[in-house]
Amino acid sequence: IGSGKIVSQIMARPKRRTIDSDNEETSETVDNEKIPQDKSLSSSRKGQGRASKQIRLSIDEADFEGDGNGRTEVETDDADVPSVQENEECSDAWNDTSRSSSLSTMSCYRGGSILRVKMENFLTYDFVEFFPGPRLNVVVGPNGTGKSTILCALCLGLGGEPPLLGRANDARAFIQHGKDVGAVEVELVSNGKVKSKGHTIRRVIDRNQGSEKGRGRGASTFYINGTKSSKVVVKELVTKQYNIAIDNLCTFLPQDKVGGFSGFTPQQVLKETQKALSGEQMYNVHERLIQLEEELHNSNRTVESVGDKLSSLKAENEQLEREKKRMEERQEAVEKIKLIDKKLLWLNFDTQRLEALKLKEEKKKAREELKKVSGLLEPLRKKASELKSKYERGKHRSQNLDKKIRENKREHEVHIRKAERFSDDIENSQVEIKNIDAAQKRAEANVQRLEHRCQEAEENLKKFPPKQDLQKEMDEAKSKLRAMKPLIDAAKRERDDIYEKGRDLQDRAVTSRRNLDRMNDEKARRRDKVFMQQRNLKKTYEWVDQNRKMFRRPVWGPVVLEVTMKDVKSSSFLEHHVPNATLKSYIVECREDYNLLYREVREKLNIPINISIVPNGVLEPTRRIYSEEKMRSLKQNHGVVGYLDETFVAPDAVTQAIINAANVGCVLVGTSDTQKSIDKKNLLMHLSKKENGAPMGYCIFSSDGRDRAYRYTGSVSRYSGKVNISIDEINAAKNLAPGAPQKQKDDATNLLKEINEEIDELEPKIAENYKRYSEHQSEGKALQTSFNNASQRMKSFNDQNRKVATARQKLADEKINASKDYAVELTHHKSQLKKNIKNTTVNFC
């Protein structure tokens, strides 16, 4: 329908659902009845500071055969569908401007139909109010004109929660940007359960109400027919009185929930359809029938199971009877065994009694022999007692001798220690006497040595020039060095300024070159741009990149990063034609890699991911829809440049995945000449016919030479066999667009060139300054060397002068030390030596 790819619907009792492709460009259908009407209604969006766009509600009659008067007759078995005459009456009433308050007009609407919808500051609309027709309503318009906004308004206006739409969790997200309050108003036709003509439900959403971290539950205020109410009352009214289930995908199918609905099993679809048609009544009856059928089946199984159990018990009873008989036989055998055991005990007793009597006789004989042997041993016992007494006396004497030996040994050790101490004292006294003699000799030798050193120091001092001459030389070198220092500092400052400017230019050149390289790296810029918008896609890419070794074959993706476009215009064509889900999907080459990637990312990390399989990554031969001869004619006469799959470069697996998803191998790419042929040469008619004259579908992109491009799509109607044409205006590419505009790249190149020119101009100045600074520095070093030499000579003179004074002082001190009298100390040590010798002699004697 129109240029859309998905049709969503909402009505009191759903009759139709149409689904196509993904969620980028959509058309929504608001279905109040079954039969499409040949009427249209325009509703304009008045924007503040924005261009006004129109949304058209209409029915495309290309798929229906009419009667030539703008009416459409459709055969149906539904008794509720009115005749063509009734449709005409309703259509006339619908065109009446006062129909919202006309009871006769409302009679054309079924109970629960939507009579009026009004939005204020809601998403893309400042203010809009429109009146759906009594039958099928189709909303048609380009991308971004607010088709999905109408569905959002219907859902929220009838008490639905934002998560039902799959777009946001907070109702405040639907308020128009820059506004604080938004409102939705939905008027419903009475269904006969109430006496009024219907209900008007109004929902006001305030951005400043409700919790900041919550889902905006407190930000909404509900009104019913102008009276303040609550969300619970509104949901009860919509669900019970009007039988509208917003949370049922068979009643209300937003485009973001199509994926979830497609995953329903047939049983789930049946249950949801029953709920949508008659609320819970039909569903409960069906569930009760299922329960009764299960109980009946269980009853049959119970009878069969009882019979089986009875047979089993009989067989078990027979088995137990056989077991009983075996047990009785066993008991008789046990009684026999007990009797035999008793007899065996009596036999053992008799045997043991005979052995005991025999042993008693042997014991008696042994006692008699023991008495005889004891008489022979008595003399030996007496002799052993005497020897023991002698042993005790010898042992006592030996102990006394050992004690006396230990006492003498201790006394001997005491004398030994005294002798060692006296020996040490003697040695010490001898050493002291020798030291006194040696000290006197050393003192005399030191006096001679110091006298010789003092003479040498005085002779070295005489070699130096006078101190006044040295001081004058040092002062002259110092003054010259001071005069040269300002010149060196000035040259150094100039050098630092030039170097600073050069470093700044080098840094700017590096930054400009890095920016230019980043601009030229299209894939990196595209990756950053995509990942900035898609956080989950970034997490998935990082996981795949870190775990590539886990896969059996290469894993490609996301597709948008694997594609390299040959020109800018083709990037817009490809992005518009290929589904967004495909551009953000990953490509694997085997089922095992598919299961691994899905399990690790979707199930374990809980990150949504789209995966396509291209077996072994093989690019299959592309089947073209036009012959080579016709293609040459299109290129020569109509400016066609080729097929869409020829405008990009990608790995084979990625190219095959794009072909599978969007059939780009059959899409033509044209130029401004192609647009002229479409406008003047009826090119589309030429494309819509096969070589045998049969109609065929086609798709071609063209541009008008003024940055505007279009896609022309022809599809063959299943009803009339005619080719219907849809035209889409192509917006500039977002994800596949070049990383940076060419003008920005040129500006960066020119800036880098200017910086390099400034660096080239600065190099001669650097060389000149370096030469001048080097000359000043050489002169300064020479002067510094002269000053250092003079200072060194002055320092050497002062050091030598101090050495002479020190040598003289040491010589005087050493002479005093040499003249010291050692006789008294020597006499003391000799007397001490004699005393120690005497004590040692006495101790050993």
Q: How many E strands?
A: 19
Radius of gyration over C-alpha positions, nearest whole angstrom: 59 Å
- Strand share of the residues? 5-15%
Q: Total helix count?
A: 20
Major β-sheet strand ordering: 5-4-7-8-9-10
- Spans of at least 5 consecutive residues with low confidence: 1-104
| Estimated structural class | alpha+beta
Query: Residue share in helices?
Result: 55-70%
Cα-to-Cα separation, first versus last residue? 142 Å
* Biggest sheet statistics: 6 strands, antiparallel
* Average pLDDT taken over every residue: 76
Global outline: flat
Describe the structure.
By secondary structure, this protein is α+β, with helices and mostly antiparallel strands. Helices cover 57% and strands 11% of the residues. The strands form five sheets. Strands 5-4-7-8-9-10 form a six-stranded antiparallel β-sheet. A five-stranded mixed β-sheet has the order 14-16-17-18-19. A hairpin with a 5-residue loop joins strand 17 and strand 18 (709-716). The termini are far apart. Residues 1-104 have low confidence and may be disordered.
